[in-house]
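Chain A, query sequence.
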Amino acid sequence: MIKLRHFLPLFAMIFVLSCAGLPPETVLVTPPEITPPERPVPSENIMGEGKVAGKNLSLFLQRNNPHTDSAFVRMLAGLYIEEAAYEGVNHDTAFAQMCLETGFLGYGGLVMPEWNNFCGLGAIGPEQPGLIFPDPRTGVRAHIQHLKAYATEEPLNGDLVDPRYKWVRKGSSPGIEGLSGTWATDTLYSNKIKVILQRLYDFSFSG
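Chain A, predicted structure.
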């Protein structure tokens, strides 16, 4: 014989749920606290793996210069990711430096857009306005190779296309900070790259 006391806890639960306006089959569970993922922070090392996706690279550049050709910018972003990965260079850093050197592809200095020189290689003055590369990939590759020369003594993985590679003291600047007074005479050069890099991360990971 089943005694009534065996059903009292069940009756009590049904009564409580009914008073709360919930059907008896509803189970009240306290949801666990969800910890939001940590927001990435830009690395100041030249070597390493970039975190910004190609889509965000291109959108960021176009946000700063809406007059650029969107197809070209997407292609250029892809080249930076590919060429940087091949040499172990952080593509975020390289792309930020390119944005600084070219004025977000607005140029306006010694280097002309059709030269495919995205980092001011050889641009010293009117008599030496800069190097010319046959296509965008070669220009990006030269930029990556020049950055790697500053960052490490490790040899290149690809065939050399940077004519000024031999003039760099290998491993003299593992981080962005060392590019001031070496890559450029501007003492604020490194800080300017860092500012663009931080803006790139704010744009890419604001959500």
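The chain has one domain: 54-204. Residues 10-17 have pLDDT under 50 and may be disordered.
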